[in-house]
Amino acid sequence: MEVSGKAVLLGKNINTDTILPGKYLTLLDPSELAKHAMEGLDPTFAEKAREGVIIVAGKNFGCGSSREQAPLALKHAGVKCVIAESFARIFYRNAINIGLPVLESPGVTKKIGEGDLLTIRLEEGLVSNKTRNQAVQALKLPAFILEIIDDGGLIEHLRKK
Prior knowledge:
Elements: E1 2-9, H1 16-19, H2 30-34, H3 45-49, E2 53-57, H4 69-77, E3 79-84, H5 89-97, E4 102-104, E5 117-121, E6 126-129, E7 134-137, H6 143-150, H7 154-160
Parallel strand pairs: 1-2, 2-3, 3-4
Antiparallel strand pairs: 1-5, 5-6, 6-7
């Protein structure tokens, strides 16, 4: 399984309220949630993400509340994968549950620049930076998580079983 897109760099401690502000939690349509992804940090994020992006972030991405709408908003905005130095546990699991690939790679923010073109081979955890002609290794996802992502999330995975 492979994903490609331009890198959008974010800092550390990006919390779920930054990813999707609480005032939008009443929205039920994922495409409506997507319009508000990261809007407090970058009001143009949803427009940029529409073409398919890969978020590259520092430590503790997705900290804060356990709202599962945060990864859902990112996925439906066009985020193909999130690579971070580390993740808040509940965000990580929520992302997997909705089929959004998340990879952990310590030091990744020092190796990838804003707008770099990335291709990621999820099975290997290999991030190819086409812009810099370099590779970055992320932690490999276990086979069962790859199955869930490939099936489009946990619910679809269970339906297949």
